Amino acid sequence: MDNHGGAIEPATGFARGGFLVGLQSVQAIRQRRLIVLGLNGATYLGLEAWMAAVVGAHGWTPIDVMLFAGFLVAVPWTVLGFWNALIGFWLLHGRRDGLAETAPFAGHGPGDEPLRLRTR
Q1: What's the pLDDT at 69?
Q2: Non-local CB neighbours of 64 within 8 Å, separated by 6+ positions
Q3: Cβ pair 51, 68 in contact under 8 A
Q4: Taking the CA atoms of the chain, what radius of gyration do you get in angstroms?
Q5: Is the CB of residue 44 less than 8 Å from the CB of residue 79?
Q6: Burial of 9 by CB count in 10 Å (0-12 exposed, 13-18 middle, 19+ buried)?
Q7: 7, 69, 101, 114 — which has fewest CB within 10 A?
Q8: How many CA atoms lie within 13 A of 16 on its CB side?
Q9: Rounded to an integer, what distance in angstroms lies between the CA atom of residue 32 and that of residue 28?
């Protein structure tokens, strides 16, 4: 058992939950996920309220309801893409070493040799 409550798979060093053991705390990962969830949720709810005000400005018709329903189905992907891009941009340009802070496992490869793979 590891200190995160899951069994360690001996071949990979990963805990059952998918975290590389000892590199990140579960609390730090949970906090980052809650922040991203809050940003995405607040943006989605704000866009939902804005769209409801726009399409329902002069009352709701069946066309307005269909437009609003389509918007509710389509906009989550835009919101997720927006926040992923903005957070990625901030990690690349706004932090001294954002990749090492959020993905420390990326630097724990077998060496500095570039990846090579034959596809045929």
Answers
A1: 96
A2: 55, 56
A3: yes
A4: 21
A5: yes
A6: exposed
A7: 114
A8: 7
A9: 6
Residue 24, phi then psi, degrees to nearest 5: -135, 145
Pair of tokens at residue 75 = 């906009």
**Which tokens go with 74?**
């389509």
Secondary structure (3-state) at 8: strand
d(CA 55, CA 71): 11
- From its phi and psi, is residue 111 left (phi > 0), alpha (psi between -120 and 50) or beta? left
What's the first-to-final CA gap in the chain, in angstroms?
41
Locate 77 and state its tokens. Answer: 């992907």
What pLDDT is attached to residue 56? 92
Task: Please give the C-alpha separations between residue 20 and each of 52, 81, 96, 115, in angstroms, as whole numbers.
Answer: 44, 26, 23, 20
**All residues at 6 or more sequence positions from 63 whose CB lies less than 8 Å from its CB, including other chains:** none
pLDDT of amino acid 11: 45
